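Re: (S)-3-Hydroxyhexanoyl-CoA structure - here you go.
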Amino acid sequence: MVQINAVTTLEVKDGIAVIAVNNPPVNALSHPVREGLFTAITQALADDSVHGIVLGCEGRTFVAGADITEFGKPFKQPGLHEVIDALEASPKPIVAAIFGTALGGGLELALGCHFRVASADARVGLPEVKLGILPGAGGTQRLPRLVGPEKAVAMIVAGTPVTAKIALADGIIDEIVADPIPGAVAFVQKVLAEQKPLVKVRDREDKILATRENPAAFEAAAKAALKKLAGVEAPAACAQSVRNSFSLPFDEGMKAERELFMQLISGEQSLAQRHIFFSEREAAKVPDMPAGVKPASLKKAVVIGGGTMGGGIAMCFANAGVPVTIVETTDEFLQKGLDRIKSTYAVSVERGALKQDAMDKRVALIAGTTDWNVIADTDIVIEAVFEEMALKKEIFAKLDKIAKPGTLLASNTSTLDVDAIAAATSRPGDVVGMHFFSPANVMKLLEIVRGEKSSFPSIATAVAAGKLLGKIPVVAGNCDGFIGNRMLHRRGTECERLLLEGAAPQDVDAVILKFGFPMGAFAMGDLAGLDVGWRIRKHRGTKAPVTDALCELGRYGQKTGKGYYIYENGSRTPTPDPEVTKLAAEKAEALGVKRRNITEQEILERMTYPMINEAAKILDEGIAVRASDIDVVWAYGYGWPVWRGGPCFYADLIGAKAICDALEHYAELTGDAGLKPAKLLLDLAASGGKFADIGVTKKAAA
Ligand code: 3H9
């Protein structure tokens, strides 16, 4: 075997050259990999004893794409295009040996080969759109030539990989093999023995001819794929580039793809999406976690409470293949909870998102009981009952008596003091908060709340549990509302003020939707139920004049057909209600608030800057250890558009100085000193610093 360079080898055996990339963790196409591949291909082509070539990888996966860390840095030759051109021009058959995930540039590399084989559990796809770019090494031109432009546009705009089985059916791969490299060697030997013609993907026209004649089906597929993606640049560029695959000759399509790629990669949206990609992976890392701390293995789980939240959490465990038992107070509540789970799964089956046998397997993993003794034999308990401290304390005291030592005791609280909950036990080290977002079986975010006494193994186990359940875990400190809800509270206060000052719910929501959130703040309030906050305010002795008045009228939101909006005949679509504006005007008059026309810009600033200010406080207090963690929380828990990178990323684009100035102005306008810029924000403004520079805060690092 010849070591071509540190990350590439070449081995020639019985006339077949096997080129292997070994660049952990995911064999990304860094410059040394491209260089190694180019040299290895050149050598294999020049070697007369080589009749066929296999392109494979060591480690856990086939090439998972271009090296994203190289984006934005000076480009070094050879580029991926040169490597792919060298493969495609080969007069000797080349077979890609796929396993793990062949993604982005990895799949593009494989599409430059004459044939592709893959192991049964492999997945292939072009997920570049999720990074705000498009496949930039021929993916938008070659994939349509294999699967047809209609399928290609759906795959590339969604960026979702497909299984080997689908890839085979669609013609992306040629065979499923038991073992990738030996399977690819056998395949290339067969090609040689049968003298199969070596057709370059670029020369294939059979799958694009019909679309070239009549692009109607393509246009319909593109329209469907782009639905609800207005304002996002990459998906539209992906669709345009796939369109070029049948409307332009190959080389011109490639040139246009390159131009679109260069435009997107230098834009703010891609920068934001790449920021979220890395931030998401960073968020689960706990800077002060001692080396060698291992998470406990989670073989059995218990969820206390079979309501909407508890049921959703139980589904997460079942979806991950972990047996889970729901503990309820009465058989009636239990049955209701289990029935709700079944009907939620049944909806997925009806929609075709889940197979019946998969549903049956998952349902079989969920048990229910009213007997607390089940807790004695579980690895993790997640309590998901009402947000009531006394109740939570009672439950944790009970858990403490029954659970075996080392069981992780987690509370799915969204605001309550995790330390106070932990203090109800004799083992506060085993207690953490695990704040799921509703619906728990769907939402990606999981805030892991680290109490004062939470042990490192407990935190590590909670993070591992989050990953096991397919969530994006972010570790947060313990405070009222943690990261997400604490910031959301700031937005809520401004919403209420804007109503009094003259904006209607629909004016505010229009700005939020235009910014890219999937839902407006008032529409979200109506969905969650206005009575929830009303109850909390009454308990705390605080007021929200307009919303309190709506609640007094029985307008709790969607569930009562009226809230900030009207929902007629069970509709979920908010209809503006002039009554709300009238009510707000009355309240404003009573309180002496002068109503005026509020600009879109002011609405946007007041919907974002107070939250950014709170983010600065959260960082300063060490509640979040990195600014990027806050961005992940907002992107995955609250619908902040990923292509806008999260509140801290957004703040860096605007600049701390401009935000401080605006906050000073709003503090004066509203008389709320709480809106004055936080110390950390003022420091950033004075130094010209950025949130992005804030890694680990003083407190967390201490
Ligand atoms: C592209 O290909 C452009 C081309 O079309 C055109 C070029 C001209 N680069 O996710 P994990 C790191 S764009 C650099 O935890 P998993 C990641 O940050 C690319 N680093 O593992 C992490 O680092 P750390 C298209 C990368 O097993 C570590 O690897 N491809 C890259 O849960 C482990 O990652 C994609 O978008 C990369 N491409 O999932 C695929 N990928 O340990 C992106 C990962 O320091 N990657 N890292 O935190 C993925 O989707 C997942 O990583 C994968 C593995 C499914 C592969």
